[in-house]
């Protein structure tokens, strides 16, 4: 009996940090956040009042809400599609037994370790309109200079290019691990049957990598919806709100104007959007079963 | 025919890889090159890749113009305290999920996986309010304390997955010899799980060394800034001093670069563990 009580105490010791985390860091703030979203609360003046669903209705008349949501969708579509394409292409290049794989792997992965502060400073300099090296090269080849970060049409694309440069190595490693797990004999058998490179890709590689794709696409989409640091540092959300993302809108409302209620309502909506997208992606990517 | 197809494929592959490597390296080489130019030299055309004269003063300026050493110290404090927190609390919880039997364990594990998906932005406003009421604004507590409560469920997940690969025979043998759970955790599991602990330590290092949003919200005083925040605030005030900014960037990326080169194996294994078992 005493042995069992002691065991129970030891068990409790092991799980206590997680329960504390869950209650204090996740459950409590989540409930508190939902509660705040039904109030109008200025944290500095201390004014607080229950406003019901007003914060949620307010998004309908908030132009910047729609703008930031659309910008975020644009960013997510561009960065997830192009980013994963680059990662997969690099992984395919590395998987085929190239000389010096470790060396290239290191180079592609290295930008991951850079702080967004450093990445932002470097790319701010590359993108500089008057003295940046990108515009210098454009001029050398006889093309007009681009206002990479100050033209509303290019600013988001410029940010996506920087993000792919900085982050492609991460998914590349996941794809590479997946590609190296596919037994070589599958390819050899297919080759004997006369399957070309393209049909081997479509009929062997892609189906077998389905779960890896599901994982990377869902994770990168979740990440993309939360983009904030990059536009905050490179463009400050501009020009003309072209790179003003959804989390930027949460940040402005919560930490610049101290509208805690409205910022919380925006956060809750973001959680709902992310949950919905993850669910749809998961269903779509794992819809058809393939057994080998 | 086959041989021809193969060489063609190899040539394509080589081209992709070399082009990719070049594109990855250009920004970094350009940063190093610019960091060694005179303040006027960075604006010179035609562009020189190898600066003439080589102007090392940018590096001394990077330390004089902003309190780089102080920022480094601050960043090290936050990062080191957090890493210890993740390792201690995370490994305890992971052990409990991997080796202990208790009611509700599996459902709680699903909750854990679910919270991995929860975007941190959802709880920033309520957490900010809570920390403000604790008078923790402009202190390091909001950045460090969560680590001791396993603030990053992903780390528990990673360690649990690794603990599960440790053969049960080993822990059973220890139990026959009379070892309790604490003893098994400390003397059997932890020594064997060193690769997993290293992976968590490295991820935690990167997470905190490079964190921007946390310090931006919680730190107000310049003397408490981290490197990432300090560099940005300096860049905001001195936008045309590109050579000094580049030198400061080089200084800032050296520590993570060293960690990366010496611990690359753990990175790779950790990511592989995430992707294939996730």
Task: Give keywords.
heterodimer; A: 292 residues; mainly alpha; MetI-like fold; two-stranded antiparallel sheet; 13 helices; 2% strand; B: 278 residues; 2 domains; 0% strand
- What is the radius of gyration of chain B computed over CA atoms, rounded to a whole number of angstroms? 24 Å
Provide the structure class of chain B: mainly alpha
* CATH arch. level architecture of chain A: Orthogonal Bundle
Most strands sheet of chain A: 2 strands, antiparallel
The top level CATH class name of the largest domain in chain B? Mainly Alpha
Mean pLDDT of chain B, nearest integer? Answer: 80
Beta content of chain A comes to: under 5%
Number of helices of chain A: 13
CATH fold-level label of chain A: MetI-like fold
Question: Helix and strand layout, with pairings?
Answer:
The complex is a heterodimer of chains A (292) and B (278).
Chain A: H1 2-36, E1 39-41, E2 48-50, H2 54-58, H3 63-95, H4 101-109, H5 116-126, H6 133-140, H7 155-181, H8 184-192, H9 197-208, H10 210-225, H11 229-234, H12 246-256, H13 260-285
Antiparallel strand pairs in A: 1-2
Helix pairs in contact in A: 3-7, 3-10, 3-12, 10-13, 12-13
Chain B: H1 2-35, H2 57-65, H3 68-99, H4 105-117, H5 124-133, H6 141-148, H7 153-164, H8 168-176, H9 181-192, H10 194-209, H11 213-218, H12 227-237, H13 242-277
